[in-house]
Sequence to fold (304 residues):
Amino acid sequence: MRYRQVSGVSLSVIGLGTWQFGSIEWAYGKAYASVEARRIVDRAIELGINFFDTAESYGFGRSERILGEAVGGHRDRVVLATKFAPYLPFPGAARNHARESARRLGVDAIDLFQLHFPNPIVPLGYQARELSQLVFGGDIRFAGVSNYSAQAWGEAQAAVDFPLITNQVHFSLMHRRPLRELIPYAVAHEKLIIAYSPLEQGALGGRYSPGSKPRDFRRFRRSFSDRSLLAVRPIVKKLESLARGYHATAAQVALAWTISHQGVVCIPGASSVSQLEFNAGAADIELSADERLDLTALAEASLG
Fold:
């Protein structure tokens, strides 16, 4: 496993996103939470994955609880990240939510506490300053944001005297907007981008087509529309071609493309231990600059 450093913290380039832990939309069933989730977390730690991400909104807190129970005695080997949804960011709300998240995770302090999205009604500086008492009070070790533009990230950072070390955003071959400003901002300011949906929930793996879509909620998402699945086919074929040279899969090369960018780690989910192992294997693939640029150019030509 490879790692990236930010503010003295080492994060595995492949982490584990745990939205599916306890979320009914994935339809994995109760046994997944009680059995498979623990197996996935145990195996992730064995493979050197140390970064685990969740949110209070995932399964209405169930994801945090399941992750905390699965981590168990491995607390000193992991970095736990969660997110606060600032729908009503009243004074002290962030602290209350952080303490509830910590209780569900079974920890004394949260490693990385992130504002899940910017509330457009409340000034960015105010939202960021709400984290101050958490940082300096020891409730959280580090603070970050999620779904912030580069400008919003900079505005929030300017309002506080502690680093907002990460920004968790949608980034994949099908969603390349962070390449324009966010990644350059992160690199210039020694911060990290955390890429969620790096495989577009499976659309980049080559398994699906207009006539064969997932049977869960994903079939209604834009990335699984007939038009998107047809448009992504040239990209998947290129991924498959590169994968043969690396003795890998298309999905692994898609993940490798994401983490080939400086200042980026990613947090794919995993429905099973075997899927987790495939995800972790992407860390061993180091694409050349030409391969990365060729994939980017093909995605621009195919998807716009």
